[in-house]
Amino acid sequence: MNKHDETTGPPDAQQITLRGPAELADALPYLMGFHPNDSVVMVALHGGRGRFGGRLRLGIPHEPEEWGPVADQLAQCLVVGSERRESRPDAIIVFLCQDPAEGESASQTMERLRPLAQRLRTACGALDVPVLEALCISDGRYWSYCCPDDRCCPPEGNPLALPGTTVMAAAAAYAGVQVRGSLRDMEARLMPGESAAAQEQERALDSAGAVLVSRILDVEGRGEVAAETLALARDLMERLRKAPAAGSAGSAGTDGGDDGLIAPHEAAAVILGLQDRETRDRAAEWMEGGEAETALRLWHVLARRCVGPYVEHAAAPLALAGWVSWSTGDEAGARVALGLALRADPHYTFAQLLHQACNQGLDPETLRRCLRGERVRRDGQGSDSPSQDPGGRHPERAGHRRTARTPAGRRKRKPVDRSAAGAVSRPGPAAGRGRAGDTRRLGSRGAGSRD
To answer: pLDDT per residue over 48-66, tens digit each?
Structure first.
């Protein structure tokens, strides 16, 4: 077993020293805020004692052919992001978390993922940053890919510590830090289910699209739809505010109650309206205080209402949920929501940029200042709708043409590898691609942008 110490927190804060793979494996849920599953997690270490720094999470690609490029991108992203945030990492820890597939043992899962671990170690080494430890966590056991000694790291692995019995668990309890279940559970609360209610919601989206599309394609109608969308969203937030959540926003115990407060036609109108990026950007201003709490509950409800062929429409409310979570200090919730936004639409620029910034540990206050300034400027002009030129378009985007697209299930499209939806976390050109000609559908035959 490789013996090394890692500490949590900055030098001026209380530090917890972790010794060896067992304590590292136990610490992972506290580092992320949830139990990652089907995930690659990379954590930067700084200084001689290995203080934890930035971290990245990505769904494990299903195809081994993707492992090499993904490893290179993840290593580059973590190193560059750490340099921008504070300093170049002195080392990196890698976690591969995946439960066994059907008919597979945990040991076989570990062996199947070994080439991915080696790819990650090689990619980090090529950047002159060593991988201090690489662990596989599967079915309640862990293995070290860096330790060749069977006496401490046997082929059958070592069992994880019992929950709540380690130094990290004690420190987290003392600090009030909670682990909110598994990643799979958190994602499920933001995704639509199959039910009669889902069918009713799909019909409402069809009906709303038939009415709204013609209005949005009209010069004056587009501004009217934007104003109506924002006004309805505020009304729904007020309705949610008057029915306080029993727990935190988005928790399993409050989802059903919030869903029952919003009718299918109301959800449909706001979902379709948010496909317009200017309307979405206005909604992003609801990011602080009590306004943020109710906005987050609304975005969660709307994400769950993007059913059937409207699954890509969820990128907008999920990105807004990720932004509000990040703005209010919930990085774990932000990463989950933004990851799902990019699973719905891997090219959604707003979510790409937010996820990259969140992963790099940037301060959301910079964006908050911009949005506050935009609200002050608009209030000073006495305008309650998105800034428009005489033709009804945003002055900076007056030449941006919006063309129609149909819902995902009703048009031919290139297949999307859902394992690549983790491009959220992937570095490189993904977040900076120019997409001036890209468009996003609204309703059955609507228009909008992918930004």
So the answer is: 877 888 888 888 999 999 9
The C-alpha atoms of residue 419 and residue 343 are separated, in whole angstroms, by 8
Note the maximum CA span of the chain: 76
Ranges of beta strands (E only) in 228-324 are none
Neighbouring-strand partners of residue 95: 41, 135
Whole-model pTM over 0.90? no
- Residue owning tokens 């009703």: 410
d(CA 192, CA 303): 7
| Residue in the structure block whose two tokens are 């505010």 | 241
Annotate 333-392 with DSSP letters as a single string: HHHHHHHHHHHH-TT-HHHHHHHHHHHTT--THHHHHHHHHHHHHHHHHT--S----TTS
Other C-beta atoms closer than 10 Å to the C-beta of 121 total 19
- Angle between helix 349-359 and 315-327 (nearest 10): 30
Give the C-alpha distances (Å, rounded to integers) separating 254 from 162, 169, 288: 29, 27, 21
Structure tokens at 312: 């890509």
CA distance 446 to 367: 29
CA distances from 204 to 196, 245, 310 (A): 13, 26, 11
Per-residue pLDDT reduced to its tens digit, 293-323: 999 999 999 999 999 999 999 999 999 999 9
Residue 78 to residue 53: CA distance in whole angstroms: 10
Q: Which two tokens stand for residue 66?
A: 């993707």
> Which runs of E-coded beta strand occur in 117-165?
131-138, 141-144, 158-159
